[in-house]
Amino acid sequence: MQDEYRTVARAGVHETEINRSRFRCALAPAATEREAQEFVAAVRKEHADATHNCWAYVIGADASVQKASDDGEPGGTAGVPMLQMLLRRDMRYVVAVVTRYYGGVKLGAGGLIRAYGGTVGEALDSVGTLTRRRFRLAAVTVDHQRAGKVQNELRSAGRTVRDVRYGEEVTIEIALPDTDVDAFRFWLADATAGTARFEPGGETYGDV
């Protein structure tokens, strides 16, 4: 698994004009290929009167799904440069649709490549991106007497506390970088006089 990747902070739109043609880039996070396709379909429906609705998306932390469409523009001048811009920026789980309203001036292949790729880059800057890092899930089980102190120290240290369950003992679910696991075990043993249990689990991605 990738240690980290970037994605868009939110859905958003950026529009620019190049030689009288309007280029409107709509960006959105997409957890699955289906979500990406549904976003493309929604933008195409909204801008059915546009000259072109070109798109690209990257799904998977390792970019396992990469697809793009020129939607009638000359081959390789729209979807591919859009996809390349997403990959160059290490973007994942993201979909981009560039809607073009033709303004009467032909841009040529080079101009189209710069326009479509550049519009996506400007949109990423405008909408904003965030980094998500791979974390190890783990369960910390402590007695009630120490639970409050452990929770406070976890939060003050910037650890991600995902859930707290109360029973005969208190189970605190956390997420931490793999590289911190050994150091965390020592800290936990010291903080609880060796009474806490630490059980590592699966992996997830979280905001940095």
Task: Write structural notes for this entry.
This protein is an alpha+beta fold. The chain has 5 helices and 10 strands. Strand 2 (12-18) and strand 3 form a beta hairpin. Helix 2 packs across helix 3. The chain is elongated, with a radius of gyration of 23 Å. The protein starts with a strand and ends with a strand.
Provide the descriptors you would attach to this structure in a database record.
10 strands, alpha+beta, 208 residues, five-stranded antiparallel sheet
Fraction of residues in H or I helices: 25-40%
In round numbers, the mean pLDDT is 94
How many strands, what sense, and barrel or not for the largest sheet?
A: 5 strands, antiparallel
As a whole number of angstroms, the C-alpha radius of gyration is: 23 Å
Number of helical elements: 5
Classify the beta-strand content into a percent band. Answer: 35-45%
Class based on secondary structure composition and strand pairing = alpha+beta
Helix and strand pattern = EEEHEEHEHEHEEHE
Large-scale geometry: elongated
Counting DSSP E segments of at least 2 residues, the number of strands comes to: 10
Terminal residue distance: 17 Å
**Low-confidence residue ranges:** none
Offer a concise description of the structure.
With 208 residues, the protein is an alpha+beta fold. Helices cover 33% and strands 39% of the residues.
Topology:
Blueprint: E1 4-8, E2 12-18, E3 21-29, H1 33-46, E4 52-59, E5 65-69, H2 79-88, E6 94-101, H3 108-127, E7 129-142, H4 144-156, E8 160-166, E9 170-176, H5 181-191, E10 197-207
Antiparallel strand pairs: 1-7, 2-3, 3-6, 4-5, 4-6, 7-9, 7-10, 8-9
Helix pairs in contact: 2-3
